[in-house]
Amino acid sequence: MTWSAETDSWKNRTYPIWPYLQAVLKETFRLHPPGPLSVPRMAVADCEVGGYLIPKGSNLLLNIWAIGRDPEAWPDKPLEFRPDRFLPGGRHEGVEVRGNHFGLVPFGAGRRMCVGMNLGLRMVHLVTATILHSFDWGLPNGLQPCDLDMEENSNGLTLHRVEPILACPLPRLAPHVYQNL
Ligand code: HEM
């Protein structure tokens, strides 16, 4: 994924914080799904999907990572991080991650989708909002966002960065707030 001033132009606009946080997390789930592949499934009968014959007994995996980057599902610069696509007026306004929109399925879809989705979504929103509320974040040694190596790898189960990110938190609340952490 490349960074450019144009890509980053959404940062200069103002949005209400809660819809914007949701849009940022949707965009993160789209480009960087924590589980890049679904749990393997086995076809219990011969069937046809999208013109392909799936013989009984086949093992099937859903490539969640590739679906989130598919230009047919995401025609507007699919490889760019653009949360505004989910905001009011954006091309994908109303698209969510709960398995109802097949272009964005970080928790899978259908009756065997992730059973921990509600907990997972709450935790991701809570932790992200808390660390953003509690600290201003910077990069060390004069690094700029465009210097970050965004390459990813998977251990087969989860997706992770090749180069761990190093970020510097700067407290932004009154000192007593941090005392019992
Ligand atoms: C952000 C957090 C999470 C993400 C992105 C995620 C993603 C997924 C995905 C993609 C699947 C495969 C769905 C499919 O094959 O269609 C899955 C399955 C599953 N997840 Fe999660 N998950 C998350 C959190 C959790 C949590 C917190 C729990 C438990 C407390 C959980 C428990 C499970 C279980 C048990 C399955 C297997 C469901 C089945 O095969 O019927 N997940 N998850």
What features would you describe in this structure?
With 181 residues, the protein is α+β, with helices and mostly antiparallel strands. It has a single domain (17-177), classed as Orthogonal Bundle (Cytochrome p450). Helix content is 20%, strand content 13%. The protein contains three helices and eight strands. It has helices at 17-31, 64-67, 117-134; strands at residues 41-42, 47-49, 52-54, 59-60, 135-138, 152-154, 159-161, 168-171. Strands 1-4 form a two-stranded antiparallel ribbon. A two-stranded antiparallel sheet has the order 2-3. Strands 5-8 form a two-stranded antiparallel ribbon. Strand 6 (152-154) and strand 7 (159-161) form a beta hairpin. The longest helix is centred in the C-terminal third of the chain and has 18 residues, at 117-134. The two termini are 36 Å apart. Bound molecules: protoporphyrin IX containing FE. Protoporphyrin IX containing FE is lined by residues 34-35, 38-39, 64, 106-108, 112-116, 119-120, 124. Pfam families: p450 (PF00067). It comes from Vanilla planifolia. Heme binds at residue 114. One of its GO terms (molecular function) is oxidoreductase activity, acting on paired donors, with incorporation or reduction of molecular oxygen.
Lay out the secondary structure.
Layout: H1 17-31, E1 41-42, E2 47-49, E3 52-54, E4 59-60, H2 64-67, H3 117-134, E5 135-138, E6 152-154, E7 159-161, E8 168-171
Bound molecules: protoporphyrin IX containing FE (HEM).
Keywords: Heme, Iron, Metal-binding, Monooxygenase, NADP, Oxidoreductase
Family: Belongs to the cytochrome P450 family.
Cofactor: heme
